[in-house]
Design goal:
With 333 residues, this protein is of the alpha/beta class. It has a single domain, classed as NAD(P)-binding Rossmann-like Domain (Rossmann fold), CATH 3.40.50. It contains 13 helices and nine strands. It has helices spanning 2-11, 15-34, 57-67, 79-88, 106-113, 116-122, 148-176, 196-216, 235-239, 254-273, 281-292, 310-316, 322-332, and strands at residues 46-49, 71-76, 96-100, 128-133, 179-185, 222-228, 299-302, 304-305, 308-309. It has a seven-stranded parallel beta sheet with strand order 3-2-1-4-5-6-7, sandwiched between helices. Strands 8-9 form a two-stranded antiparallel ribbon. The protein binds NADP nicotinamide-adenine-dinucleotide phosphate. NADP nicotinamide-adenine-dinucleotide phosphate (NAP) is lined by residues 50-53, 55-58, 75, 77, 101-104, 134-137, 157, 183, 185, 228, 230-231, 233-235, 238.
Length: 333
């Protein structure tokens, strides 16, 4: 207290106190303009989370939401993946309910939506209060030699999958004034070489989330996007090392001649940043906030890229000329 008084005596009548007061004033206005109240969801409500296979961030998201007391309809594509999820988390098994849903297929999403009221809302005597669009796939390949079908698959899952889920389930969120949380990627902040198919789908995801947020505001449905850096999940094992799509390219092919050096560079870079990956809990913390907080954020920017916090990159990169950003990126990959 004495110290505070001393500071006040020293600076109380100076120009610094005016700057401080002005700072507080603008901060308060800024907070007032950027925060919007949404009704917190029913504590025992249902939340659908897509892509909950063990080892991915969907697992952590589903478990952390179940720990909050939500009934989680944990989307998986194979029945055994649902069993693995529940067996691995017996502490929340009464709140974890695996459901089969392939967001890349109309009939699969329609099958989950069919008799939804009877099968889930009445069964658990609770409203649907949230959807977490987490399912996603990558395809690291330079655009010139990328397979068109695989590029379409990436968009079909990462973009159209979100649209399918929104079309099928928003009517229930309208009743509960529920929430949607989409999992985006920091790649939509800085697309790297060999990342075109995935990065462009996550750029599209930003536009999708912005439009959805505006359209659904009328019914007090909150839409948040989590802009995620590099996270330690099974995704890396699926797309790198011996599973890298580039490994399917023959050593003597034209593609290898053109892009072999880039593949080696990317492989090396992926190896280097493995030690800087963040745990999936940083994502699930943001998801839980987006689903439960009376003041959900429109965007949560979490984790790092090559050890640099994404929120720094996201604020810095738009200020720099593209050519400078290109130089930085070329030195990172
Ligand atoms: N890991 C990262 O560094 C990182 C960074 C930024 C953003 N992300 C995003 O975070 C999300 C989760 O990624 P992750 O790292 O947890 O990857 P992951 O371990 O590969 O998990 C992806 C999940 O999505 C599911 N999935 C794939 N295709 C699907 C489909 N057609 N329908 C329904 N589910 C499908 C997978 O199911 P199967 O097991 O059946 O294939 C799996 O459960 C993705 O949207 C990804 O783009 C990840």
């Amino acid at each position: 207290m004495d110290q505070i008084l001393q500071i006040y005596e020293k600076y109380g009548n100076s120009k610094y106190s005016l700057y401080l007061l002005l700072g507080f004033f603008f901060l308060t206005i800024y907070r007032f303009l950027t925060m919007k109240y949404f009704k917190p969801p029913a504590k025992n409500g249902l939340v659908i989370v897509t892509g909950c296979t063990v080892g991915g961030m969907g697992e952590t998201i589903a478990v952390d939401l179940a720990k909050q007391g939500f009934h989680v309809l944990a989307g998986v594509r194979k029945e055994e993946n649902g069993k693995d999820l529940v067996n691995l988390h017996p502490e929340v098994k009464e709140f974890l309910h695996p459901v089969i849903v392939d967001v890349g297929k109309d009939d699969s999403v329609e099958a989950l939506a069919k008799n939804f009221e009877q099968k889930y809302l009445k069964k658990y005597n609770a409203p649907l209060v949230g959807i977490v669009n987490n399912a996603g796939i990558g395809y690291p390949m330079p655009i010139e030699i990328a397979d068109i079908q695989k590029c379409s698959d990436v968009f079909n899952v990462n973009v159209i999958g979100v649209i399918r889920m929104t079309k099928a389930f928003t009517k229930y969120l309208r009743e509960s004034r529920g929430r949607i949380v989409n999992i985006g990627s920091a790649t939509s902040t800085m697309a790297m070489q060999c990342d075109g198919p995935y990065a462009s789908s996550k750029f599209a995801g930003e536009g999708l989330a912005d439009s959805m947020r505006l359209e659904l505001m009328k019914w007090d449905i909150s839409v948040s996007l989590i802009v995620v850096g590099q996270i330690k999940t099974s995704m890396w094992g699926k797309l790198t090392g011996s599973n890298a799509p580039s490994k399917q390219i023959s050593r003597s092919s034209k593609e290898e001649e053109l892009y072999g050096e880039l593949f080696d560079q990317v492989q090396k870079a992926v190896g280097q940043f493995q030690g800087t990956l963040s745990p999936p809990s940083v994502v699930s913390r943001a998801v839980v906030h987006g689903i439960t907080s009376p003041y959900p954020k429109t965007r949560y920017v979490v984790a790092n890229i090559s050890g640099i916090p994404v929120f720094i990159l996201r604020n810095l990169i738009p200020l720099l000329p593209d050519r400078i950003v290109d130089l930085i990126k070329l030195n990172l990959s």
